[in-house]
Task: inverse folding
């Protein structure tokens, strides 16, 4: 059972090793953390496998913890945030994302979802597993909800049509991503956790 958790994706440490030591010392059962170190310093330095192993092992006073990689998948908040998401942001917006942007996961009018988003998410969860993370936390899953600028971009004649288009696309992407995680042709990992944030309507898809 998870009795305590913490979310960390901004830290003052100057190296991935010192950051890993600080994260390992947090006394929680579950740690949700940024998956790339250096996002706030511009160094774009990934945590190593040994860094993640040390964080998961904890310290003598804290014990082991489950470690989940964090990413805001509904919006890119400045180019700095693109560094945190690595290939995901680059695939969607190119090398430069100096402006905040919403992620179009609903695709065009003729598409049921945006395949570029699904492909980028597959790459991201594969990298997380390779580096030793126990799962992925997908945040800002409700980017279409209540934002006029986003709704204007979604195909549909009415607000209801737009909501239906966006939620159907999102559910399709999540289902396909989950299949990829569990499938022998994908990560083949029945224990990798897929956790969704900012969308109570998708609570049944938490793992």
Result:
């Amino acid at each position: 059972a998870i009795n305590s958790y913490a979310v960390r994706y901004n830290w003052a440490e100057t190296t991935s090793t010192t950051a890993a030591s600080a994260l390992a010392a947090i006394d929680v059962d579950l740690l949700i953390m940024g998956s790339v170190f250096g996002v706030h310093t511009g160094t774009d330095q990934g945590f190593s496998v040994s860094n993640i192993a040390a964080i998961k092992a904890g310290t003598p006073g804290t014990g082991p913890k489950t470690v989940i990689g964090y990413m805001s998948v509904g919006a890119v908040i400045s180019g700095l945030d693109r560094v945190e998401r690595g290939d995901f942001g680059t695939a969607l917006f190119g090398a430069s994302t100096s402006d905040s942007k919403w992620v179009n996961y609903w695709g065009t009018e003729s598409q049921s979802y945006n395949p570029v988003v699904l492909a980028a998410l597959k790459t991201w969860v594969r990298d997380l597993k390779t580096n030793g993370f126990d799962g992925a936390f997908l945040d800002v899953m409700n980017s279409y909800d209540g934002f006029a600028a986003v709704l204007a971009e979604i195909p549909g004649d009415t607000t209801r049509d737009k909501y239906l288009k966006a939620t159907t696309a999102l559910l399709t992407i999540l289902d396909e991503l989950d299949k990829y995680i569990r499938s022998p042709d994908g990560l083949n990992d029945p224990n990798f956790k897929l956790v969704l944030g900012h969308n109570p309507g998708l609570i049944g898809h938490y793992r």
Q: What stands out?
A: Strands lie at 5-8, 30-34, 36-37, 45-46, 66-72, 75-76, 101-102, 135-139, 193-196. The longest strand covers residues 66-72. Helices lie at 16-24, 49-57, 78-85, 87-93, 115-131, 148-151, 159-182. The two ends are 13 Å apart (CA to CA).
